[in-house]
Design goal:
about 0% strand; mainly alpha; about 600 residues
Amino acid sequence: MNHWQRRCRGLSAEVEMSNGIPVGICLVRKASDKCCSRTFVNRTLWYRASVFILTYAAYTCYHLSRKPISVVKNVLNKNCSDYVPPPDLIINATNKDNWCDWAPFGDKNAAAMLGALDSAYLFAYAASMFLSGFLAERANLRYFLALGMITSGLFSYLFGIAKSYGIHNMWYFTLVQILSGVVQSTGWPGVVTVVGNWFGKRKRGIIFGLWNSHTSMGNILGSLIAGEYVEGDWSLSFIVPGILIAGMGFVVFLFLVVRPADVNCPLPDQVCAERLNSQGYETVSSEDSSEGLASCESDDTELGNDYHSWKYGNHHNNVSEGPNSFHITRAWHMHLSSHSSVISKQAVRPLGVIMSSAIAEYHGRSQREDSHILTCHSSSEKPIGFTGALKIPGVVEYSLSLFFAKLVSYTFLYWLPLYIKSSTTLSPTESAQLSTLFDVGGIVGAIVAGGISDYSGKSASTCAAMLSLAIPMMFVYEDYGTDGFVTNVLLLAAVGFLVNGPYALITTAVSADLGTHHSLEGNAKALATVSAIIDGTGSVGAAVGPLVAGFVSNMGWQYVFYMLMTADVLALLFLVRLVKHEFQTSRLCQLLFY
């Protein structure tokens, strides 16, 4: 009887959950053992694919359920002169301008009230994000995400039934939005941490760029679903997304594997000696090397050469060849041999770490050399806390930059359909459909930003370049976007490309990099807090943007665009120090190694 059968046989759901293996995974393993027992399956690759797909679908549903309010705004407050009143309705001086609106959004302050509704959600979301990061470090993320998704579906449903039950109380809508913001904050720290657990640092930018398209995909699907029902029965614009996210939450509960250790898979940056040997590495022997490698399970996927963690113990300085030895490249042997104390304390050091060490020496700083390979997520790991996360270099700068970058992105998210309808002759449904092009551009922008970041190694510079181009592009879109349909399509996609690229890069790859910073010494529990701080700060900006836009739009839409351009300038300024550091580091590396 194999390992999986021993773990799965006769266990109740409660026992399965306590072991970290979801019930659905046990059922899949049981079925595969019966019908495909002789079929070879790359377990690590299979689990990584399942985690990628499940977290992608989960956060797509999170964003899908946030989008309806921006689409439904068009029917909550309309120009009643464009519509024919029903024959049984008596039109008089008091209701001639708002008979077709949904109270309380029928007066001249409707735009401000709708903006306040957005901000009620977003401020609650931002405030709760910091708490969610704290809880995500300490909770089972499968339960955490499933509960958050199911309750998100509940509050989306409660907003929709306001139409069915004739609810017109502003406090009702505000309370639902606040509670929705609280439970929706469970999503980001949860999914980022799970993906960070399964995917290593190599090509992290492009992987997270592809994965982060869930944000735009959720916005697109949310716009299309809400747009389908908005002119008939707008309650379904909320109820259908609510059902989808709740259903997906149940799927996550059944199948999501949070950590590789839960299913005896190797960590993403853990490397076997055989793979190193096959790549032509020279060796430095270790007395306990076999112990460190015994649990390393090789897979056929490309793990890469950027080894984030390594084993430490009682090592010798002699160079030898052998199957159970740790390895260093011949090219760096002479460099390391001049630091015998370093070699005596560590076995494997990646090129990037060696370069970082040399740079640290150049600046007169010391680096700890006692990092270790994480063979599992040890229970001895302690959450770093809010203050500890803020001390990680770059967290504060990226958080403040994201404050303004996300302000811009979410102002488009919540107000773009209404802007399109007010500046063109398109219907509410057509406006919702056209607004999806902003997110299409955002998908491409996230992937391109991640690819450039991987290739150049300069995340801050990549973000700064795209922000610099986004500023004039928004000006062009405001001036010429309404000149024709084709022009609107092209400019809207270009704006989405440049606005969402930096936002996506900071919230994903940058957050994951900072959450696995070498100063944390491999503490896997830091990622949730770091991602919560960065995205939580950005979410405060996301709350401010739509709120201010609701008031500013009364003076004219051009002033909203001026506000957004100013926000991008400020986002750019907070990256200046990091960009300068990246170029200084690049020049120093050239001097040291070329």
